[in-house]
């Protein structure tokens, strides 16, 4: 492959929709790996720009506005601020985080479209598209819902089923309808839009990707190949909507730029915004987007691969003035507790809520998401794994080693780095083990293997933890203090190396560690050195680098998810099909009566059964055994009037003769609720 020599790197992270917060799926798929990579390049003193921003056009924001009964602008203003602050608090170190409703972006995207239009690179086509038969409103794919033809799930969108993940078109949906007006039918009417003829560029795309970028991740390369093996169809670059950037040509009234045309241009317009405000620091925006010595890297999730690898590069190529992405290290999806993360179902861990529930623990989440990074296949986040990795790895290995080394130095030498004496074979072996850490981490980060690179950083802590545990300086001190000097000197060099190695991954704890060992900056070139802390160097007061997370804290998070799942099940509940018709005569055979519960108690050795004594109006109490013990405390039912079937043949349950059946309703979650009478009647009154 041709050797590429770049002078600088432009790094983009997918623009999140400003219709909600950022969740762990976004973080694992895009923002944590992008931030690790950018921090790494900065540490190497390379010229790099990190660009982010909110995607404030498109259907998701308009759906949110309608749902909340507020204007679309109010929605994007609220969520742009929330997302931006969450990223800042979490340490995602964008050089700029802007928005696609900015005046700069509107003009830039409009001019970009006009350039393609004037060059004849767009096709004007009139096609039949779905619209609401009542309002006449043309509907985008996201405003059309129906039954998924693949898995049968209700509420699948016109572009994707969130249940099974299938990519769809509105024509494929079973019984499609307007999401915002479910009772309205759909009809097709002709409408004019402008299309990007992807087929024109198919041969070029095949050569550029399939021949020129075989180094791309297998999941990215494979998805691109599957698209390029088919005939690429023209893709609409405009939409019939009232929210977005107006199409800048005659005859386009009521039409806006398609969000997937305007959003990636936001990377460029945000760069222009940053450069225009700080030309002395960043130079011109053209340097980052039009200079062939600049490298472009897109961090995205797998659902955006086709847009960033096929559609956007085609737009850039058709324009003619831009560099093309050199790599697109897209991740697969992260699931939550073995279920697909879903914004619409609120099945997610939101970053702004995490920062409230776990103050000061940004690095714990960064560590766990990187350790579980879905780099080649979908992966899973569980709260138990989060707790285990924190307690066993961050606390038990990394934190334990650092704390031992610093506390012992404080105890024996008042926090002053001791002299290094004569090295034993074990000392030399330990030093040998970590001398290549820089190359190992770099080799992995250079090819976007963040999960393995973090493992190499943690391996330093494992080496240190084993070394200090094997050497037992707290015991050796009693007989050979000089030997302890050497043990702690080597241990402290490992500690200093950890502060450097973890800087791209865990910036908050690395800063805390640098403060404890009293060094200002972080020089990546020194990673692997064995003399980072000179003898006589004064350390600062040691603190715990990480804290154990208790079971109660994790259970609270699991309870929150359980409640969300219960709410989702309630919202998705559909009544069971009606049983076959029976005659009125058959119904009359049942003798349903009202009884007053006199006593109620649990049946011994039976978890589900309650024993009732019921006044049925006959003058003789009736005993009924019912399987509702999981849903009621016996005392709360005493005195209540319930309906029961009086003419069932008696049968024995746990040795007790049950003389009837209390009627109960089964809820969506399997819980049972006894049927009660809202106004008191005489015991024995018939129902029917």
TrEMBL record:
<dbReference type="InterPro" id="IPR014729">
    <property type="entry name" value="Rossmann-like_a/b/a_fold"/>
</dbReference>
<dbReference type="InterPro" id="IPR015413">
    <property type="entry name" value="Methionyl/Leucyl_tRNA_Synth"/>
</dbReference>
<dbReference type="InterPro" id="IPR004495">
    <property type="entry name" value="Met-tRNA-synth_bsu_C"/>
</dbReference>
<dbReference type="GO" id="GO:0005524">
    <property type="term" value="F:ATP binding"/>
</dbReference>
<keyword id="KW-0820">tRNA-binding</keyword>
<feature type="binding site">
    <location>
        <position position="343"/>
    </location>
    <ligand>
        <name>ATP</name>
    </ligand>
</feature>
<dbReference type="Pfam" id="PF09334">
    <property type="entry name" value="tRNA-synt_1g"/>
</dbReference>
<comment type="function">
    <text>Is required not only for elongation of protein synthesis but also for the initiation of all mRNA translation through initiator tRNA(fMet) aminoacylation.</text>
</comment>
<dbReference type="InterPro" id="IPR033911">
    <property type="entry name" value="MetRS_core"/>
</dbReference>
<feature type="short sequence motif" description="'KMSKS' region">
    <location>
        <begin position="340"/>
        <end position="344"/>
    </location>
</feature>
<keyword id="KW-0963">Cytoplasm</keyword>
<dbReference type="Pfam" id="PF01588">
    <property type="entry name" value="tRNA_bind"/>
</dbReference>
<dbReference type="InterPro" id="IPR012340">
    <property type="entry name" value="NA-bd_OB-fold"/>
</dbReference>
<feature type="short sequence motif" description="'HIGH' region">
    <location>
        <begin position="16"/>
        <end position="26"/>
    </location>
</feature>
<dbReference type="GO" id="GO:0000049">
    <property type="term" value="F:tRNA binding"/>
</dbReference>
<dbReference type="InterPro" id="IPR002547">
    <property type="entry name" value="tRNA-bd_dom"/>
</dbReference>
<feature type="binding site">
    <location>
        <position position="151"/>
    </location>
    <ligand>
        <name>Zn(2+)</name>
    </ligand>
</feature>
<dbReference type="GO" id="GO:0004825">
    <property type="term" value="F:methionine-tRNA ligase activity"/>
</dbReference>
<keyword id="KW-0030">Aminoacyl-tRNA synthetase</keyword>
<comment type="similarity">
    <text>Belongs to the class-I aminoacyl-tRNA synthetase family. MetG type 1 subfamily.</text>
</comment>
<dbReference type="InterPro" id="IPR041872">
    <property type="entry name" value="Anticodon_Met"/>
</dbReference>
<feature type="binding site">
    <location>
        <position position="161"/>
    </location>
    <ligand>
        <name>Zn(2+)</name>
    </ligand>
</feature>
<feature type="binding site">
    <location>
        <position position="148"/>
    </location>
    <ligand>
        <name>Zn(2+)</name>
    </ligand>
</feature>
<dbReference type="InterPro" id="IPR009080">
    <property type="entry name" value="tRNAsynth_Ia_anticodon-bd"/>
</dbReference>
<keyword id="KW-0436">Ligase</keyword>
<keyword id="KW-0694">RNA-binding</keyword>
<dbReference type="GO" id="GO:0005829">
    <property type="term" value="C:cytosol"/>
</dbReference>
<dbReference type="Pfam" id="PF19303">
    <property type="entry name" value="Anticodon_3"/>
</dbReference>
<dbReference type="InterPro" id="IPR001412">
    <property type="entry name" value="aa-tRNA-synth_I_CS"/>
</dbReference>
<dbReference type="GO" id="GO:0046872">
    <property type="term" value="F:metal ion binding"/>
</dbReference>
<keyword id="KW-0067">ATP-binding</keyword>
<keyword id="KW-0479">Metal-binding</keyword>
<dbReference type="InterPro" id="IPR023458">
    <property type="entry name" value="Met-tRNA_ligase_1"/>
</dbReference>
<protein>
    <recommendedName>
        <fullName>Methionine--tRNA ligase</fullName>
        <ecNumber>6.1.1.10</ecNumber>
    </recommendedName>
</protein>
<dbReference type="GO" id="GO:0006431">
    <property type="term" value="P:methionyl-tRNA aminoacylation"/>
</dbReference>
<feature type="domain" description="TRNA-binding">
    <location>
        <begin position="586"/>
        <end position="688"/>
    </location>
</feature>
<dbReference type="InterPro" id="IPR029038">
    <property type="entry name" value="MetRS_Zn"/>
</dbReference>
<comment type="subunit">
    <text>Homodimer.</text>
</comment>
<keyword id="KW-0862">Zinc</keyword>
<keyword id="KW-0547">Nucleotide-binding</keyword>
<keyword id="KW-0648">Protein biosynthesis</keyword>
<dbReference type="InterPro" id="IPR014758">
    <property type="entry name" value="Met-tRNA_synth"/>
</dbReference>
């Amino acid at each position: 492959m041709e050797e590429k020599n770049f002078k600088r790197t432009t790094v983009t992270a997918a623009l999140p929709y400003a219709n909600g917060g950022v969740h762990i799926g976004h973080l694992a798929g895009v923002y944590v790996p992008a931030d690790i990579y950018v921090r790494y390049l900065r540490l190497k003193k390379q010229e790099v720009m990190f660009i982010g921003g909110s995607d404030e056009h498109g259907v998701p924001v308009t759906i949110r506005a309608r749902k909340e009964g507020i204007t679309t602008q109010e929605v994007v203003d609220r969520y742009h601020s929330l997302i931006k602050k969450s990223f800042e608090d979490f340490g995602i170190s964008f050089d700029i985080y802007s928005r696609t409703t900015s005046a700069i972006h509107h003009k830039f995207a409009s001019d970009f479209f006009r350039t393609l239009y004037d060059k004849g690179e767009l096709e004007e086509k009139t096609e039949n598209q779905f619209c609401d038969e009542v309002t006449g409103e043309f509907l985008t794919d996201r405003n059309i819902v129906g039954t998924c033809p693949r898995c049968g799930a209700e509420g699948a969108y016109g572009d994707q089923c969130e249940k099974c993940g299938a990519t769809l078109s509105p024509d494929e949906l079973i019984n499609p309808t307007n999401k915002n007006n479910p009772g309205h039918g759909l009809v097709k009417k002709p409408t004019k839009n402008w299309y990007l003829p992807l087929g024109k560029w198919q041969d070029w795309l095949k050569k550029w990707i399939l021949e020129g970028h075989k180094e791309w991740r297998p999941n990215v390369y494979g998805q691109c190949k599957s698209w390029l093996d088919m005939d690429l169809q023209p893709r609409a670059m405009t939409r019939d909507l009232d929210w977005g950037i107006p199409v800048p040509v005659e005859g386009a009234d009521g039409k806006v730029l398609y969000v997937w045309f305007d959003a990636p241009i936001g990377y460029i317009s945000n760069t222009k915004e940053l450069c225009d405000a700080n030309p002395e620091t960043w130079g011109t925006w053209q340097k980052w987007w039009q200079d062939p010595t600049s490298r472009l890297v897109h961090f995205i999730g797998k659902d955006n691969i086709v847009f960033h690898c096929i559609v956007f590069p085609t737009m850039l190529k058709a324009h003619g003035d831009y560099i093309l992405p050199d790599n697109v290290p897209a991740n697969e999806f992260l699931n939550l507790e073995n279920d697909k993360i879903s914004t619409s179902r609120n099945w997610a861990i939101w970053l702004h809520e995490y920062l409230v529930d776990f103050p000061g623990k940004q690095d714990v989440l960064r560590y766990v998401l990187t350790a579980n990074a879905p780099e080649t296949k979908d992966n899973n986040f569980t709260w138990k794994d989060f707790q285990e990795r924190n307690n066993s790895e961050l606390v038990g290995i990394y934190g334990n080693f650092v704390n031992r080394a610093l506390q012992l130095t404080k105890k024996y030498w008042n926090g002053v780095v001791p002299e290094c004496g004569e090295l034993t074979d074990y000392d030399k072996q330990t030093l040998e083990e970590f001398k290549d850490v820089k190359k190992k981490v770099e080799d992995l980060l250079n090819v976007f293997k963040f999960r393995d690179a973090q493992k190499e950083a943690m391996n330093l802590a494992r080496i240190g933890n084993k070394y200090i545990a094997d050497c037992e300086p707290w015991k050796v001190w009693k007989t050979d203090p000089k030997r302890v000097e050497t043990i702690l000197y080597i241990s402290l060099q490992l500690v200093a190396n950890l502060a450097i190695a973890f800087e791209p991954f865990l910036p908050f704890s690395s800063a805390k560690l640098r403060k404890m060992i009293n060094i200002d900056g972080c020089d990546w070139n020194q990673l692997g050195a064995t003399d980072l802390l000179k003898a006589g160097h004064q350390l600062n007061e040691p603190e715990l680098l990480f804290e154990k997370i208790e079971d109660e804290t994790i259970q609270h998070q699991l309870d929150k998810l359980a409640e969300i799942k219960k709410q989702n099940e309630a919202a998705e509940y559909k009544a069971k099909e009606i049983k076959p018709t029976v005659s009125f005569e058959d119904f009359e055979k049942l003798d349903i009566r009202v009884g007053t519960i006199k006593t109620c108690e649990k049946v011994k050795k039976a978890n589900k059964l309650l024993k009732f004594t019921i006044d049925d109006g006959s003058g003789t109490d009736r005993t009924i055994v019912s399987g509702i013990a999981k849903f009621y405390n016996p005392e709360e039912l005493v005195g209540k009037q319930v309906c029961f079937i009086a003419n069932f043949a008696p049968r024995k349950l746990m040795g007790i003769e049950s003389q009837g059946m209390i009627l109960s309703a089964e809820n969506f979650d399997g819980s049972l609720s006894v049927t009660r009478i809202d106004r008191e009647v005489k015991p024995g009154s018939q129902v029917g």
